[in-house]
Fold these 2 entries.
Entry 1:
Amino acid sequence: MLLSRRLFLAGAATIAAAASLPRQVGAADSQKTLRLQTRQIVVGGKPATRYGVVQPSGAFGLTLDEGDELDVMVENGLPGPSGLHWHGLTEPWRLDGVPYLSAPPIAPGTSVAYKFPAVPPGTRMMHSHFGLQEQDLLAAPLIIRERSAIASGAQEVLFFLEDFSWTPSQNLFDNLRKPKAGGMDMSKIAGPDLNDVDYDAFLANDRTLDDPDVIDVEKNGEVRLRIINAAASTNFTIDLGGIEGSLMSVDGNPVVPLSVKHLPIAVAQRADLVLRMPADGAAVPVFAIGEGRKLRTGIVLRPSGAPIARLPAEATEPGPVVGLDLETVLVAAQPLTERPIDNSIPVDLTGSMMGYIWGMSINDQGGLPATIDKGQRVELVMRNRTMMAHPMHLHGHNFQVTEINGKAIRGAVRDSVLVTPKATVKVIFEADNPGLWAYHCHNLYHMAAGMFATVVYRAFS
């Protein structure tokens, strides 16, 4: 049994509590240690050595409560340089964990201390920003439990998604950049390209459906499911197995609740769903189906004594294309205040599968940053010129989605938004965190092939 691989009870490491978040309320302990190290998981019955972010107790990732500080020592136990980015938090820019941009990487055998307010609260994550280490599973949950979630008493359950290949990550990238046989790849012209990599498995809490993570819950009980898409390049659709849930937040930020049975979730996005378990005590499988593929993964929520049927690793139909339909109906529960836009910045997302070169042109100039001033209300106008979707992420800020393909909305507050092929998406944010910030596509291979830029505050120090 490998249930302990996804334990992240604060201060406890019992196998029975795997993937179930702590309920206790209290002040944070003194400095915690997060160790970057290799670990073994089992995929399809075979052992695989990959990376991980582990506390000395064996707990995976980190859980704090709203109002706590993030006070950690990150130790690099890997053979090469690495580090951690605090995805979704608004930390000081020099603590952002982007190698050579905010600070040097953490050398092997050394450690770096991080201390700053853990804001905003919600379902966040942490991951390496060094090379292709995300594909080697160097990512972990970072949960800052909201006071409202704590007060609700609902059991909290993690659903942590990753994509897995037996092929080394560098080989995957090299294969993508090889010239296409016969010159132009006509299959990429007929319609959007959904998947660059043909993955061998999708993981939920480190497991495949031949041995899913089975989480004990109460019959007729309330469950807060914290979903994190930590995949390197796969969008998913969440299938609640026939029951209905209430969508409470996206990317850690509250939305006006929305009833769903299926939920699209792009790379780097998160979602909190509140579910009511069936009164008859039946187990509930929760699936994540890969976009454009039948391959899926999942977990099982099981009341005591409930039987569990065998769960095939493939769905009957390919996963839906992840688009922007949900985005158009989401409404922020805590929207940005209304004020004029001071700085509207056009951002063209460019590139193609031919040669596998991707880019971002800001203000119609490739290679230059988006420059802003502290105190401005900034608008990013993202225009996708390509036939692939791009999950766009801005570090150190949360933004509100305000327009999709010319339709104005009072959309969700996020840190990662999908820009679908040929679409235009507008977001706004407050320039209130001076620094030099990464701004990029969160498809790991698009970013590595050039879809990476920066947002720079003038006269920051």
Entry 2:
Amino acid sequence: MRRYLYSSIGVACTAALTLPLTLTLALPANAAPPAAPVVSADPGIPGSTQSLALVPLDSDRSAGSAQGLTKSDVRSFSMVGVVWDDPAVVLRGQVEVRVRSIATGEWSDWQVVDTDNQAHAADPGTTEGTSKRLRGATAPLWVGNSDGVEVRVQSSVEGRATQDEALPRGMHLELVDPGEEPLRGAEGEAPAGAVLTPESAAASAVNAELAPLGADTIPALDKEQTEARLFRAEDNETEEGAVEGVADKGAAAGGATAGSAAVKAKYIGPQPRIVTRKGWGADETLRERDFAYTTSVKAAFVHHSASGNNYTCAQAPSVIRSIYRYHVVSMGWRDIGYNFLIDKCGSIYEGRAGGVAKAVMGAHTLGFNTDSTGIAVLGSYGSTEPAAKAVTAIAQLTAWKLGLYGGNPKGKVYLTSGGGNRYKKGTKALLNVISGHRDGFATDCPGARLYAKLPTIRSKSATLQGR
């Protein structure tokens, strides 16, 4: 039987967290010696969050039907969102913001912030899902580098007497500064002479069999190279890893502590290029230190970030840093919710820490985070057509990731609901191996235009696997 070679390095992760304050990058024995060291070890400014309480905007304040802020001068920021005290409360109304651009000094038109965000969360009853730090929130909106803001939140609930009944309690406007870009190394390599914090070393170590410690990217491999890395050459017995059309329940990898197990596989797509957390500049001190794993990856849920389409591909790392900070600092999650993110140019980014080849437990599809992976395309795709490169990237990523666990992109699989508005807790739901967020939860995500691309994605992904 061919054996799964993405082995456990949980010990390496633990060791990384016990190292001194900085860690000089260690390269494989056959790697070329590093060039002249980088003088500065500063990976860039980590960013910040401004949290501003909203106030009533009604002339009759007892009505409580609107809250917000009038035009205000603030420190620079690039992403906005609104949060409130109780994560179980739904904001029934409309949120609009306008901002002042630092580049032009001009105020933007009013922009609508997506309030359909409650379905992006950890499963009910889990440690992350019951954390006292959690808050309700809108989706974050990317607005670009700004230093002025105005916001209004209008309730759609009629016949209410008080502010607390009409709108969620404790509403705050969150203004996120993503910080500066990190130091860059050569393609796929760590910056020569750079240093890592223990937290960064741990996040990188779980990908050590795919790229050098501290690398900015995990390189793309062709199908032959992917299979050579995955399977032991001396053990070439082939076995089916999935029943045709339904993912094999036994094709499990990604244990509770390190995410490694033998897996039977026959079909897998080429390993795609993936920008690591180090590559997009994650501040690893924000997230919780340990990694959370599920048993397997039986399905992939496709999302859009609902953060707007007004970003360039060069800004994508900044957008991701902002979403990460918003999820952790503003919403109270343990880490960014998605396992992977993809920009409009088709670049793939590592999301939640724990290892791109491992079964990392995310917080992307409320009720179905167990045995699944979440992939978010940066942008909003209710009425906007997703870029062809982004659609192709989803197919490439799912062909590889699902292939590690014996998943058939054109198949179906049973997943047990952890609780949600479409499937009650404990329900065994038969879902597509590549599903949209709305298939597991009643939501608009991933937007009508991106959802319509899923049949194409399934077909492309299966073809890349060799099916």
